[in-house]
Amino acid sequence: METIQNFIKQVQKKEINIVEHTHKVLKEIKKINKEYNYFINITEDLALNSAEKVKKNQNGKLSGLFISVKDDICVKDIECTCGSEILKTYKPPFNATVIEKIIKEGAIIIGKTSQDEFGFGSFSTNTKTMPKNPFDKSRSCGGSSGGSAGITQKISFPHLSLAESTGGSIANPASFCGVTGLTPTYGLVSRYGLIDYASSLDKIGAMSKNPEDAFYLLDIIKGFDPRDQTSLNKELNKPKNKLKIAIIKESLNINKEIKDLILSKVKNYDLISLPNVEKYSIPTYYIIALSEASTNLAKYTGLRYGQTEPLNKEYNEFFTEVRSKYFSKESKRRIILGTFARMAGYREAFYLKAMKTRTLIINEYKKAFQKYDILISPTMPILPPKFTEINKLTPLENYMMDILTVGPNLAGLPHISLNSGFINKLPIGLMAISDHLNENNLLEFTKTI
Ligand code: GLN
């Protein structure tokens, strides 16, 4: 397949009829979508209008490049549901900062991708449009950015996807769909216009077929934004010449085949033990993420955004009716758990304690990065599961699937999931983590795999 850089150059030199090309892409993704459900919404009019604009001015760094966007990122006047019934009909009147940036560079947005409702899940099954794994339709794409990963694997045209991770939602589906998923340092990419799951954890990142392309997109979307209070005003560090690599010992207590595949890919490594990450990251993550989610979701009351009901009763009854009707079971579970963890009387025991263990986890990583530049683990502890297997999981078993991805997310560390091969024809991801703002070390590392 044509490389992204090559394609963009051809568009810039007017060697490609971008409008005709856009028609072809739309035809292909409609066909794929019938079978695989990767899009909640294919933005045909927007794509064709953008193609006309690119035809007139083709100087952008993303000129004519097709980009799909996870449904939790706002695109002006395009329905944005975050995979939820409660946000049906909501059309943001503005573009997220990342969308402004890619449009300015000539990108063509082709659609909003399927995801778990508000990012609540690891398999993209907590939503109506459940995407199917590109390698086996009876299996999950992973989640929550499942649609972005699936289309990135399946599309035959040059394409990138904007995805989002709170606790692993870029790495996990990238691993299950055999593509690259790059999650940047927290604060490097503006969250303005991203619908919040957990504000201290959410990060927009990139998915692509090849690692270099994900970094190419990151370079365009990163940068300080005064509209996001947690946006970083810092540059990325220069890459190191010789990277010191360690594999996280505890992450290898998994399926032997996955372990052997990961070990066979990495040369010259030490083993490092991160016991606090292993022990505390799941409870810490779920307490903090759900506490923040429960406050972030308080704004969906049927008054401002999305679905509503006739206003013929007391406000409290009205809010309850809308929220009961349109939030899914998983969202309700998370609102209740998060509210409980923050409640007077329980706050010390849960939320505040989780804040302390989060610091412990960050310090453990920081210490590891005094000695090493890259930490490695498998991305997921299992092969992409069948939908029938997912149905049998208890909520706790489901949350445990994130054991390897929540650590770097809690610490706001950049990480990348790379395809490292296949077992039983199913893709396996290798995850590399670097210290804050050391994305360039990750890029160097990808060249060795
Ligand atoms: N699976 C994790 C969760 O359900 C992470 C999801 C995400 O990163 N949005 O919270």
Could you explain the architecture of this structure?
The protein is α/β, with parallel strands linked by helices and 449 residues long. It is built from 16 helices and 13 strands. It has helices at 4-12, 18-36, 44-56, 97-104, 146-154, 171-177, 211-221, 256-265, 275-296, 315-326, 329-342, 348-371, 387-391, 395-400, 406-410, 439-446; strands spanning 39-42, 66-70, 108-113, 132-133, 136-140, 159-165, 180-183, 203-208, 245-248, 269-272, 374-378, 415-423, 426-433. The strands form 2 sheets. The protein has an 11-stranded mixed beta sheet with strand order 1-3-2-6-8-7-12-13-11-9-10, with helices on both faces. Strand 2, helix 4 (97-104) and strand 3 (108-113) form a beta-alpha-beta unit. Helix 5 runs parallel beside helix 6 (171-177). The longest helix has 24 residues, at 348-371. It is globular and about 55 Å long. The model has no long low-confidence stretch (mean pLDDT 97). Glutamine (GLN) is lined by residues 119-122, 144, 165-169, 197, 289, 402. Glutamine (GLN) binds at residues 119-122, 144, 165-169, 197, 289, 402.
Rg, alpha carbons: 21 Å
Lateral arrangement of strands in the main beta sheet: 1-3-2-6-8-7-12-13-11-9-10
Structural class: alpha/beta
- The portion of residues assigned to helices is 40-55%
- Count of DSSP E strands? 13
Q: Please indicate the percent range of residues in DSSP E strands (runs of 2 or more).
A: 15-25%
- Hetero groups bound? glutamine
Low-confidence stretches: none
Mean pLDDT: 97
Instruction: Please outline the major beta sheet.
Output: 11 strands, mixed
How many angstroms does the end-to-end distance come to? 20 Å
Q: SSE order, as H and E?
A: HHEHEHEEEHEHEEHEHEHHHHEHHHEEH
Shape, per Cα inertia axes:
globular
Total of helices: 16
